[in-house]
Amino acid sequence: MFSFVKRYLRKRYLARHPISDTIWQQVIALPLFTGLSAAEKGQLREQAAWFLHKKSITAIDGLEVTPGMRVLLAAQAVLPVLNLGFDAYDDWHEIILYPGLFRTRDRYTDHFGLVHEREQILAGQARSNGPVLLSWADVAESAWLEGWNVVIHEFAHKLDMRSGDPNGDPPLHKGMSAAAWKRAFSNAYHHLVMLADRGEYSPIDLYAAENPAECFAVFSEYFFETPHAIADHYPAVYEQLKQFYKQDPLARLPRVRYRPAFEPVSYGPVVQLPAVAGWA
Length: 280
Ligand SMILES: [Zn+2]
Known about the structure:
The protein is of the alpha/beta class. It folds into two domains: 2-146 and 266-277, Cyclin A, domain 1 (Orthogonal Bundle), CATH 1.10.472; 147-263, 3-Layer(aba) Sandwich (Collagenase (Catalytic Domain)), CATH 3.40.390. It has helices at residues 2-16, 21-28, 38-54, 67-78, 136-140, 150-160, 178-198, 212-225, 227-233, 235-245, 249-252, and strands at 56-59, 94-98, 102-109, 115-122, 124-126, 132-135, 271-272, 276-277. Helix 4 (67-78) links the parallel strand 1 (56-59) and strand 2. The protein is globular. Residues 153, 157, 214, 217, 280 line the site of zinc ion.
């Protein structure tokens, strides 16, 4: 009964607050959404409208957020959960949007239990039990099938955090094999760590070799942007992500040149944030 009422209220809201045609046509024409069927595009449009209803976007440092900017952000954010259901994003509420890269000071605990503080300049950050922070400049440059996408990266961390601290081990769906997931990702991760140690060419951004949480988030970016890079070199990881996201971007996207290094396109001021615990 409750889910029936929930569905009814959602349907009523969406009917009354659709994303405008003009904005939607501009957003859906971006390369990231290539190959989606008409039904999938319709579903994405509804999910994006619902996302904007359920999540608050707080603009920082004088950034003015237009309706078009909101839709571009939302459409990218809901692509990973298109077939998972919106519930996958239920446990957080806010996005903080900066004009460009921002500076954070974070505390983290190392393997020996020692607490450290570090400063980082970031394009995005997903906070455990907290908001997602994003640089608008990078959000705007993300949907171009170049192998990096800050929105998908940070929201992959949020999916990972559904089972606690981010560790590359998100809750899997019924029928998925935890052993197959672990085997595929740990083989890929150790291979990337080896390439990083040797300074060798990697088809995948070596930020994935930082830790298993980043490995999952970076592979998620490639999955939606340049899936051929994963399918060519880490087919077992592609198979696991296909099951996890319940999508097959390989079947819908063109093969594009993949970019071996992470080169965020960013500009705008760097903003100082207070220190927090929990980061990804
Ligand atoms: Zn990350």
